Amino acid sequence: MDILSDWLSAQLDKDSAEPAYRQLLQLMQQAILTGRLAPGTKLPSSRTLALDLDIARNTVLHVYDQLSAEGYVISSTGSGTYVADTRPDSAAVGLRPPAGANASAEAGSTTAAAACPRGDMSVRGQRLIDEAGVSAKQWGAFMPGVPDVAEFPSRTWSRLQSRLWRSASHDLLTYAPGGGYRPLRRALSDYLRVARSVRCSPDQIIITTGIHQSMDLAVRLLADVGDRAWVEEPCYWGARSVLQSSGLKLAPIPIDDEGLNPGEADLCEPPRIALVTPSHQYPLGMVMSLARRRMLLEYARQHKVWIIEDDYDSEFRYGSRPIASLQGLDNADRVIYVGSLGKMLFPGLRIGYMVVPERLAATFRTGVAELYREGQLMQQAVLAEFIMDGYLTSHVRRMRTLYGERRQLLIDAVTRHFGDALPVMGDEAGLHFVLGLPEHCDDRAVTADALDNGVIVRPLASYYSRTQERKGILTGYACVPHEQIDPAFATLARVIEEHAFTRAPHALRRTA
């Protein structure tokens, strides 16, 4: 055996309850991140490594596939698998801003409230209402981001709930303790460790009512009015509203195929908060590369930036295993990980969670109790039983298959109507994809006309805060029964045809 095989063999514990696949994946990741496996190193073939370690070749193949999906390695047919170079380059990304950059930024900043007369609404309140993205309709083809609640195992939930109500103690009927119901925090800790590679203990988990409250709490405790916050461009309008309403100064950072891509000017003015969706960018769907993840974590460490990682629907990934969390790579305790059970179960549940560094856990437990006086302990207790009895895992597995089928049906419908004239973007995971439109199209007008015809989509324009770089509509498939996809898309296609091709300049019109 070579040096790598010797080291891996010494580290693998075949008597451990931890599967060999997970052990080997973590060891390979550790070796790459620490430099034991240098960039450019060629890995042994899957057959050779399996023989050296006396494990199944499929186990090694799965590990190599996951390393490739997360950007640790690069595979080339006929050449082999090599360690990727993901080391942060301090000179290239400008990790140390020039002296005085922060002072000049602060000197030039003014608040809108100082320039506007006081009316019924605050300036930030009026801005929230003017830029609101919430929809009056929350269900139907092709509403993005909505799960199929008709498939939720309500009888199982009802049985668990009835059992708890029959023996309900006073403790379940009062205000929630700071942080939430401890058995639920323990169950979530175990689930997140396995499903999302999150490193945490039950004490680090804070139960909230969802992503919005988690972000609100983090911003209130970690940032002050006027602080700078990075947000992805484009980004989820709800997250942007929460940060903006808290008085933060938003700095939209462009997105490319590797995720968040701050320029030199951005790096010279470190934010207090950076909000990212690294495992499945919302709304465009790309995965943040390992190199960008390491750069962001190193930048956050050097400049004391708090990263809020929104991991909103990464359980639903098609064709590969879910991408590991950014939090799992964080050795400096700068990541606040937030998630929700709404898309996995049903949105009306209104139970979310956040994972905070150990040194902040007591602070956040006090903060959530002081600001929101949380309750819902009975719901939390039911959810804890639901997770511990294995129902969550089996439900997510079943829904991933169902949503994957619906996704493919919708993609097939797009292809039948438009061929390759309209691109499908971000379909590898989640509950929606972006259907691209020609540059001359007004996606807001397409959305309005579609709604008039009984079809719900969202314009990509509403997710940009500056110049819209791409035209498209967010098209959801999760809550649409199989048999309704074709007729509903036929209606949408007629609207798109009118806007994208019938009204198009002659050069852009499709030929029959």
UniProtKB/TrEMBL annotation:
Molecular function terms from GO: transaminase activity
PANTHER family xref list: HTH-TYPE TRANSCRIPTIONAL REGULATORY PROTEIN GABR
Pfam family name, one: GntR
Name the UniProt record assigns to this protein: PLP-dependent aminotransferase family protein
Assigned protein family: In the C-terminal section; belongs to the class-I pyridoxal-phosphate-dependent aminotransferase family.
Presence of keyword Nucleotide-binding: no
Keywords: Aminotransferase, DNA-binding, Pyridoxal phosphate, Transcription, Transcription regulation, Transferase
InterPro entries registered for this protein in UniProt: Aminotransferase_I/II_large (IPR004839), HTH_trans_reg/aminotransferase (IPR051446), PyrdxlP-dep_Trfase (IPR015424), PyrdxlP-dep_Trfase_major (IPR015421), Tscrpt_reg_HTH_GntR (IPR000524), WH-like_DNA-bd_sf (IPR036388), WH_DNA-bd_sf (IPR036390)
Domain HTH gntR-type: 18-86
Domain of life: Bacteria
SMART domains in the record: HTH_GNTR
PROSITE patterns tied to this protein: HTH_GNTR
